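Example 3.2
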Amino acid sequence: MSTTRQEKTLAEITVEELMIPSEKVAHVQTNNPLEHALLVLTGSGYFAVPVLDNENKLAGSISKTVILDQILGIEGYEVEKLSHLQVADVMDKDIAQIEKDKLFIDGLKTLIDAPFVCVTDGDGKFAGILTRRAILKTVQREYYQNQFGL
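Structure, written as tokens:
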């Protein structure tokens, strides 16, 4: 008999069960111009997105703030820089990440200081993201099950 996520305890739930899969996550490539990255960020409504290399391995993340810092000049924004710089030139390489087979508690610990963390498989390929929202919804479900038997 298989156990559904609703029947599992927090100690048994894996990151993979809670993550948003890579196919549904906005991302950019290392060789994309900053102009493209800004369009993806603006179009998606996200503050930051994962950066992948040519093999779909996680390389870092890029945010609106990093991009805007790069084009800020003395007298205003120098928008022409957007097409001359690549994502790899300015991306944040030191990002929080977790492997998809890790447990809920590992995801919780990793997410404490970030709104989302990137999830990878055992080979470093990008598998998706784990959001603070997914963790909080799982804690809420557990709370109501324990308090009210729902």
